[in-house]
Amino acid sequence: MEINGASAIVTGGASGLGAATARLLAKRGMKVVIADLNEKLGGEVASEIGGAFAKTDVADEAQAQAAVDAACALGPLRALVNCAGLGNAARTVDRNGTPFDLKAFEFVIRVNLVGTFNCLRLAAAAMAKTEPLTDGERGSIVNTASVAAFDGQIGQAAYSASKGGIVGMTLPIARDLAAVGIRVNTIAPGLVDTPIYGEGEASEAFKANLGRSVLFPPRLGVPEEFASMALELITNSHMNAETIRVDGGIRMPPK
Question: How far does CA 86 lie from the centroid of its chain?
Fold first, then answer.
């Protein structure tokens, strides 16, 4: 799919996986809207790549629509990469017999799963109105799941449920959107070196230890490797309805 001169939205684009993806798409000629809650970092990335920033709670309909409108103002919307997400760690019942807080569970589902679908449906509606390209193609959507969708660890009930939901809706949504020429794929990254691990000597030692559990290469992934896969899923017109693990072959243990 030709993307030069078209627009894209990257949710969670202020840092980590999203920022790397936004930079790569801009390098390939796309006008990228950074949809994120972090105004400082999001604005900096947008300025760096010649794009735009839209303060966005991904589960908020009006804010997500504003991000879509901002992208459409820059050019025909051809790509959405959903990277926004969060997690928490809590056992279903802890050692004191206290159950997982329901509001905490619902919050993760709201951001990760509902937020992904909210941005997807609104972006797809805008893509459906664009002029079709070769084979009637109008756009490509890339969602972010996690290996936790398949190998969820102790304490990851909410996170794994949210990411499993993203995997589960990939095929039916791809089938829905085939009628308007929009492809949908999902990336399930493994352990990736992002700011979530902090900085400094202790952080580096911790990340090195985590990397030993990766089959090969025995290290954490880097955001640019995720971005490379996202670009492939956007531009390769025969990639559709698939979930791809980008994880170095890791299979997560229970804890």
Answer: 11
The span from the CA of 202 to the CA of 211, in Å, is 14
Cβ-based neighbours of 225, under 8 Å, separated by 6 or more = 192, 246
Residue spans of alpha helices (H) in 84-137: 102-109, 115-127
Share of the chain above pLDDT 70, in %: 100
Q: Under a CB-based contact definition with an 8 Å cutoff, are residues 20 and 223 in contact?
A: yes
Compute the distance between CA of residue 116 and CA of residue 141 in angstroms, rounded to an integer: 11
In the numeric block, the tokens 């700011």 are attached to 195
Give the burial class of 87: count Cβ atoms within 10 A of its Cβ; 0-12 exposed, 13-18 middle, 19 or more buried: middle
Pairing of strands 31-36, 52-55: parallel
Residue 185 phi/psi, 5-degree rounding, is -135, 165
Q: Name the residues annotated as catalytic.
A: 159
**50-85: pLDDT as tens digits:** 999 999 999 999 999 999 999 999 999 999 999 999
User: Structure pTM?
Assistant: 0.96
Q: 154 with 143: CB under 8 angstroms?
A: no
* 3 C-beta neighbours (distance < 10 Å), count: 21
Q: Of 155, 62, 151, whose CA–CA distance to 104 is shortest?
A: 155
